[in-house]
## 1
Amino acid sequence: MDLIFEKVNPWLHDLVSYIPGKPIEDVARELGLEPGQIVKLASNENPLGPSPVALKAMEEALRKAHYYPDGGGYHLRAGIAAKFHLTSDNVILGTGSNEIIEFLGHAFLRPDDNIVTAEHAFVVYKILAKLFGAETTEVPDPNLTHDLPAMADAINEKTKIVYIANPNNPTGTMVGQEELDQFVSVVPSTVLIALDEAYYEFLLNPPDTLKYIHDHPNVIVLRTFSKIQGLAGLRIGYGLAHADLIRLLQKTRQPFNVNSIAQAGALAGLQDEAHQDKTREVIREGRDFLQAGFAKRNLEYVPSVANFVLAKVGSGKGVFQKLLRRGMIVRAMDEYKLPEWIRVSVGTPEQNRRFFQDLDEVL
């Protein structure tokens, strides 16, 4: 029976799987706590939940759950295209933007290829590259912000994809329009530029990255409904790119990859501007509260433009474990090579206050 494992792709043996934030239910079961006692500020989720309009649309869609979903996602793709003044040919759907990162691997990566990322960027880029036998070149990021000139210099003849998370997870930092324009202008057209914008809706003046996709077929913009839309549990995201690139990526996609409930909720949530505005306000106020709280306690933090804050607490894993025992879930940063830091998602005002109460007890 063991002989089958000799046939496994060799690069899988040392592949380390992604470690998600601990679910509330797991913590309750492990620690003997009631779920209502637990606050989760670990996964950058929307503390307000989904739009009421999205909830209603999903309830209606449930009545037709015995039918297969629209495999092409016609209505959602059309809605996304209309919102961003594109065509449906510029849009691809995925089970979260993570799946679109996987599509890129299927389309472009082979063993011995490489991707380029910032040293402290979203770890999934590296994990999925490894899944295809490709290596990752990690470029140092001074002040925990992408160094785009250095990333451009790191590109070589084996580079297939460069990933830029903007704003970046887990640091909450971003690069601006001028830096992006310069970067796109110097990267060879044979290298794909993936602009991961999972948190772009939280920016007051986000860079215009959609302008690239018409004249640069090697650029794709990745976005998600998991964050400001509050639909993380449905796993739905999208990519925006030149029609030729989208047409290629469609060939890597499973026929019914995005379920009908997710499509209905995403389309309705996309159109609920009031819910998004309310979320932005809650995040802005909560982020200011967290940063002021860290400053008051003389704890170093990284000024953030996203819906989370990275803070230096000594032993990230130790503080994480102590907070966990109190029913407060945050994220330790060991897998990002930041062992002294924790990442704290912005919650409701009550949850943010509870976080500092628990933090004061464990420090």
Note: The two ends are 50 Å apart (CA to CA).
## 2
Amino acid sequence: MQRLTQEGLLISIRNRGLFVITMTDDEVRDMYVARTAVERAATELILQKGSKPVADQLLAIVETMKKAAQKADLDAMSEADMEYHATLVAAAHSARLTRMHNTLLTETRMCLTALESRYPDPQARVAEHRAIAEALAGGNDQLVGKLLISHMEDALERLTGAAKTVEETPA
């Protein structure tokens, strides 16, 4: 709880307790800008070292996502999604990128419940992850970057759309 408070995800109010923060659209956008930057930097490092082993790991995680999607197990899908992105950044072997990414993933977990409901077809989420891993396997830096940015923009659009839906709903 101390770590989450230090990372700004919980607010401690004396004599009242701990409370989860509410993220605004601007904060969600900022989080996704940072995630995109960290993950792009990670893919550049991976491509310099040889991307095929990492791509194979990511494709195995995509298979886990696919099975979860077929079962409509959104929790398992979200866990695989987080594992995918954590594996991607960890494979860059940069302690700083990994530390930054871990904080960003903690924030992302807060948004996943809203995001899950914004994918009418969970296979679309699987396809996005598969395409990134396949581009990485092919060593195509420009395509990896384009797909990663598109993936993040898609998630951001879905999340901010979900927030607008909640804000427009009367109490």
Note: The CA atoms of residues 80 and 116 lie 13 Å apart.
